[in-house]
Amino acid sequence: MICSRSDVFCDWLDVTCHPEESFLSELALFLAYHYYPVAFTKTGKQGNSTAYSVGNGIVYLEVSKHFHRASASGSSVREFESLGIFRDYVNVLGTVGHNVTRLDVAQDLYTDAPPFLRGLEERYPDDLFSFGRKSLRVTRLYSARALDRQLTGTWYAGHRSSARVTARVYDKQAEAIEVRGEVL
């Protein structure tokens, strides 16, 4: 199987802090300084959130009784990187004690997904995958691809588990067509 691959990139970043020592006001100033508009605000029982349009992505600033959260999509991270301000963004996050609560790391492989997924099935026939000493259950969510009826979809290791590290391999081309009607 011949394929090329992208560099590894951050595809989502969530950082939380304690409400008494929060980075949210500084982050709102940072986003305003760089002219990122508010996309929407939401008020609910659990707290309030404000979403900012950052390039093709979104940054959520969430206020809750127990924590404050900054949540950046991968597209917004790439926007910050392209402008040379990602380090400034994370420096604002680092001004107070915080926890990284979600970090999605991705790599795009430019290959046909069905044969790649069949290779994963052959390599892990017992549906167990391990990053370390503890095995994670493999879950497959497949459907027939409209083009040629080959099975494609998503292969998960640790899906809906309490594992700190999980993996997902999916057919991005099929997802783009199905969700956005976009042909890659």
Structure report:
This protein has 184 residues and is of the alpha+beta class. 26% of the residues lie in helices and 40% in strands. The protein has five helices and twelve strands. The chain has helices spanning 24-33, 74-82, 86-93, 113-123, 172-180, and strands at 4-5, 9-17, 38-43, 47-54, 57-64, 68-73, 98-106, 109-110, 128-130, 135-144, 151-157, 167-170. Strand 5 and strand 6 form a beta hairpin. It starts with a strand and ends with a helix. The relative contact order is 0.16.
Helix fraction, binned, reads 25-40%
Q: Report the end-to-end length measured between terminal Cα atoms.
A: 20 Å
The largest sheet has its strands arranged as 3-4-5-6-2-7
**Total number of helices:** 5
Task: Please state the CA-atom Rg, rounded to the nearest Å.
Answer: 19 Å
Unreliable runs, pLDDT <50, ≥5 residues? none
Query: How many strands appear in the DSSP assignment?
Result: 12
Strand content: 35-45%
Q: State the order of secondary-structure elements, H for helix, E for strand.
A: EEHEEEEHHEEHEEEEH
Largest sheet: 6 strands, antiparallel
The gross shape turns out to be globular
Mean pLDDT: 91
Helix/sheet category: alpha+beta
